[in-house]
């Protein structure tokens, strides 16, 4: 049986030390299979973003087990975590974070460019560009490849950000309020895109959101309350 894309057991995280320590995650358990789309709801300050930071290898848990595709990531070195992050993870944020001086195509290939600069891969850039064009086409914005971000709409930029997250064929995509800066119609399109990514590409998607309505389209909806995931 294949390993889950994400496996967290008894994960705890606090900020600060000693009596002043503030617990943010309290023994969180989470399993996400390949191709599964999971939405996490919860109020601000409930621990949702901290959970994404741990899953995205931006931070380390204080206690508990954390695996990505069977790899125990809690004990990896910083260099090993950077490589795994580049190879297995994609990120989508509330703001598209596209670089304004680069075209849409160049933005989508940025993870590959960074990986080459850091000598994490020796794959030719032409391969990354071909994949980027295919992703842009699949998201309905292939005609925008040569445009700069300022020449596109907010919804188009967010779809470009999804393409960028998928550019290195990650096993897991982590999305932090990706529709928070969009109107209802464009937000619905982003949810539909993420759902399609999970089903067609076999990518595990964990999406943090405040959108109760659209979250119902996920395979599972979990709620974070005071550091506890239910």
What does this structure look like?
This protein has 230 residues and is of the alpha/beta class. The chain has one domain (35-60, 76-229): Rossmann fold (3-Layer(aba) Sandwich). It is 35% helix and 25% strand. Strand 7, helix 7 (184-201) and strand 8 form a beta-alpha-beta unit. The longest helix has 18 residues, at 184-201. It is globular. The chain starts with 5 loop residues before the first strand and ends with a strand.
Key attributes of the depicted protein:
230 residues, alpha/beta, six-stranded mixed sheet, 8 helices, 35% helix
What is the C-alpha radius of gyration, as a whole number of Å?
17 Å
Q: Any idea what the shape is?
A: globular
| Low-pLDDT segments | none
Please identify, by name, the CATH architecture. Answer: 3-Layer(aba) Sandwich
| Helical run tally | 8
Major sheet strand order: 6-7-8-3-9-10
N-to-C SSE series?
EEEHEEHEHHHHEHEHEE
Identify the CATH class.
Alpha Beta
Give the strand tally: 10
Beta fraction of the residues?
15-25%
Largest β-sheet summary:
6 strands, mixed
């Amino acid at each position: 049986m294949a390993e889950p894309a994400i496996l967290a057991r008894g994960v705890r995280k606090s900020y600060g030390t000693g009596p002043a320590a503030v617990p943010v995650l309290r023994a969180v358990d989470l399993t996400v299979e390949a191709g599964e789309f999971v939405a996490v709801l919860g109020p601000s300050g409930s621990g949702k973003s901290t959970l994404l930071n741990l899953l995205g290898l931006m931070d380390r848990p204080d206690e508990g087990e954390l695996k990505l595709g069977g790899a125990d990531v809690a004990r990896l070195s910083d260099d090993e975590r950077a490589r795994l992050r580049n190879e297995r993870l994609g990120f989508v944020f509330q703001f598209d974070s596209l670089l304004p001086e680069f075209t849409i195509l160049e933005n989508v290939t940025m993870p590959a460019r960074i990986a080459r600069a850091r000598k994490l891969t020796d794959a030719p850039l032409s391969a990354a560009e071909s994949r980027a064009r295919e992703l842009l086409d699949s998201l309905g914005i292939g005609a925008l490849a040569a445009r700069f971000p300022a020449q596109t709409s907010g919804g188009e930029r967010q779809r470009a950000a999804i393409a960028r997250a998928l550019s290195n064929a990650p096993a897991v995509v982590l999305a932090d309020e990706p529709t928070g800066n969009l109107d209802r119609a464009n937000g619905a399109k982003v949810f539909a895109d993420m759902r399609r990514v999970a089903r067609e590409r076999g990518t595990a998607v964990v999406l943090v959101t405040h959108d109760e309505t659209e979250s119902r389209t996920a395979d599972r909806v979990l709620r974070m309350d005071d550091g506890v995931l239910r």
